[in-house]
């Protein structure tokens, strides 16, 4: 086995200490991504890049209010969770609740499998009148506005934009 020169030993120590420093920084960053303080039943985002997801089922089940309040709650939740928020997951939670409350809606929902959320909402609105369907309609409208960039243009979202 060959012996290392002084320069090689220094380089090895330097590399080792840099590795430890990077690992320590990574662990600190990881902790900050998971640290969320809850205020007003919504978490306060410490890092907008966090991928922590809200509890969509609880959000849907606990809601009792007007559609304006629902619209505002969805936007607040989106802002609070940043990149961890998914409109599709929220829509899925509402659809699950609709199936529970209106078992006959299963046929309508299954017939629309693979189609857009907008198509599902239209079919449900034609056959039923329910708060959950109205909530799903709001989510569909916000989803469309989000992907068209309207929420950012109207300053309704405040994360991830420079």
Automatic annotation (TrEMBL):
Keywords: Coiled coil
Listed Basic residues bias regions: 9-23
Keyword Coiled coil recorded: yes
Biased composition (Polar residues): 32-42
Coiled-coil segments: 114-141
Domain of life the protein comes from: Bacteria
Annotated spans, Disordered: 1-51
The name this protein goes by in its record: Uncharacterized protein
Organism of this sequence: Colwellia psychrerythraea
Upper taxonomic lineage: Bacteria, Pseudomonadati, Pseudomonadota, Gammaproteobacteria, Alteromonadales
């Amino acid at each position: 086995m060959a012996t290392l020169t002084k320069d090689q030993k220094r380089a090895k120590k330097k590399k080792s200490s840099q590795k430890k420093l990077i690992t320590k920084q990574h662990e600190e960053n990881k902790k900050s991504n998971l640290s969320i303080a809850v205020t007003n039943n919504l978490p306060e985002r410490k890092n907008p890049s966090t991928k922590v997801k809200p509890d969509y089922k609880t959000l849907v089940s606990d809601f009792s209010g007007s559609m304006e309040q629902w619209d505002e709650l969805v936007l607040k939740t989106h802002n609070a969770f940043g990149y961890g928020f998914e409109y599709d997951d929220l829509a899925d939670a509402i659809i699950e609740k609709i199936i529970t409350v209106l078992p006959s809606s299963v046929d309508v929902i299954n017939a629309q499998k693979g189609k857009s959320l907008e198509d599902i909402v239209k079919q449900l609105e034609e056959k039923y009148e329910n708060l959950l369907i109205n909530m799903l309609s709001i989510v569909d409208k916000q989803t469309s506005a989000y992907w068209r960039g309207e929420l950012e243009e109207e300053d309704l979202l405040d994360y991830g934009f420079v």
